[in-house]
Amino acid sequence: MLLRIIADADCAGERLDSFLAKKIENTSRSAVQQLIDAGCVTLESGKAVKSSLKVTGGELFLVEIPEAPENAGLTAQDIPLDIVFEDADLIVVNKPKGLVVHPAPGHEDGTLVNALMFHCGDSLSGIGGELRPGIVHRIDKDTSGLLIAAKNDFAHRALSAQLKSRSLSRVYETIVRGKMREEAGTIDAPIGRHPTERKKMAVTDRNSRSAVTHYELIAQYPGYAHLRCRLETGRTHQIRVHLAYIGHPVVGDAVYGSKKPELGLDSQCLHARAIKFIHPRTNEEMRFETELPDYFTQVLAKLCAKNQ
Question: Is the Cβ–Cβ distance between 239 and 231 less than 8 Å?
Fold first, then answer.
């Protein structure tokens, strides 16, 4: 649903997130901030905005409200979790490939959120909204690896602040097509919705937000490369879009790469390998790393065999 909201002159000087929260029925300020962070709020010109933007009066804001599942009521489901760390404030899980993080159209249940509700009971923060309790950040359905969930609003706010300040570090490993010309590099290119395919993202100057990905070569194989990527920002599909943009799409990524399965994969070979953050309660630096999953090591084994 697309809303067109004109700023009244008497709202001049008010923060955008506060202004929109008053204009959109049944929406909290934190929910508006999430919409803004997701790029769902723009000026009429298509220019992206920030929550802290001061309204001057007379602007026309376009607000895209994502569709919610018909039945928004969530149920706890006994889905096994690979728990890496847990305490009273947060939980770090190793998500398997194929598991959706939170309910969305077409995936109303059987998600990580349903599993967290079963495991944590009522101990999940509510900042993420009714459909995303505890979710501080997300990874795609077919991306595996580490993800943090908050058990209370205090932890959620602190972790979200680290994401915003870029002090929460996330490191991924992936296998891409092609021969890398450099052993390391940085991709600094803004990402926004694809101009014609709304389910895809793209490098674009229109209605986009800054996106920065750092990468380094782990190993080069004939026709393929094993990379380590560190996110400086966290845009939707960022690593997949950025690597495709420089001519090295992620292996198995039918959206941004080859439509045909390769190396036995029919979805992206991308794993959230490590995560580092400051514990919101103790201020202790926390760092976790997980082993590469079987699907990833099997691809590496095939590449090593071809290289002999």
Answer: yes
Q: What is the pLDDT of residues 138-189, one digit of tens each?
A: 899 999 999 999 998 889 889 988 988 889 999 999 999 999 999 999 999 9
The pLDDT assigned to 21 comes to: 85
Report, as an integer, the average pLDDT of 64-71.
55
Concerning whether 37 is annotated as a catalytic residue, the answer is no
Give me the catalytic one of 17, 89, 140, 142: 140
Query: b/e map of 29-65 (b: 16 or more CB within 10 Å)?
Result: ebbbbbbbbebbbbeeeeebbebebebeeebebbbee
Q: What is the CATH number of domain 83-165?
A: 3.30.2350.10
User: What average pLDDT score do residues 282-306 get?
Assistant: 95
What's the topology of domain 170-273+293-306? Answer: Pseudouridine synthase (3.30.2350)
- CA-CA-CA-CA torsion for 244, 250, 255, 259, nearest 10 degrees? 110
Is residue 129 within 8 Å of residue 96, measured between CB atoms?
no
Class of domain 2-64: alpha beta
